[in-house]
């Protein structure tokens, strides 16, 4: 992904300083944590593939809660007209520093409060829904931002993964108890994780049709179960080949050994 590489500046705002180490891994090839790098690469691949399936460029894409904007910039470089959004308005300047080509608009603010004059062809929500107290309302809000025939692309950690200890969304009777802790970043901010079988009814409740559901990133690819040192010895091609082989396992097995989940929704 040809994004301008930034040199860390200790005078940056806190959110920029926090984001930069992630960029070193995600877009600039750092291999200090190969499992994270490979896991992110798989998430990016699936998300961009699903956006392309939903609508080829040039499409109007809204990247909700986009943080440092790596998917925003990738989609803009692919020819889409992309609107970046995040609750942390000061990250806009950081994204602008990295932006070199393509069309990007900026709309910082709370995703639940956004309003636009026109709808988008695709709304992208990557690693967001697990951070909100009311994922049903969040998906409904995303659906309202696309017209009939428009699409939502979502990625989120797979709650069916055998090491997950977070509760199921459908097991939480009173979602209001989570409101005080929502919107926190990283894994510490995960409130609950969606299981694959929860996605179709959640989509239906938001007035969406589930077009495709994928799970991805096995234990080796993600450096889980003590496989991190092994990743330093194996060529990346071998790791990715193993990841592709995982996709041929029975669905029930893949649901248990995969850490990530991606979905494509359509508004009928």
Task: Please describe the topology of this protein.
Blueprint lengths: L13 H13 L7 H21 L5 E4 L6 H8 L3 E4 L6 H8 L4 E4 L15 E5 L8 H10 L6 E7 L41 H7 L3 E8 L11 H4 L4 H11 L4 H7 L2 E7 L2
Parallel strand pairs: 1-2, 1-4, 2-3, 4-5
Antiparallel strand pairs: 5-7, 6-7
Q: Give start-end ranges of low-pLDDT stretches.
A: none
Task: Report the average pLDDT across residues.
Answer: 93
Continuous helix count: 9
How many domain regions? Answer: 1
CATH superfamily annotation: Vaccinia Virus protein VP39
CATH architecture: 3-Layer(aba) Sandwich
CATH class: Alpha Beta
First and last CA, distance? 33 Å
Description:
The protein is of the alpha/beta class and 268 residues long. The chain has one domain (14-266): 3-Layer(aba) Sandwich (Rossmann fold). It is 33% helix and 15% strand. It is built from nine helices and seven strands, in the order H-H-E-H-E-H-E-E-H-E-H-E-H-H-H-E. A seven-stranded mixed β-sheet has the order 3-2-1-4-5-7-6, with helices on both faces. Strand 2 (81-84), helix 4 (91-98) and strand 3 (103-106) form a beta-alpha-beta unit. It is globular, with a radius of gyration of 18 Å. The mean pLDDT is 93.
Name a few traits of the molecule.
268 residues; alpha/beta; single chain; 7-stranded mixed β-sheet; 9 helices; globular
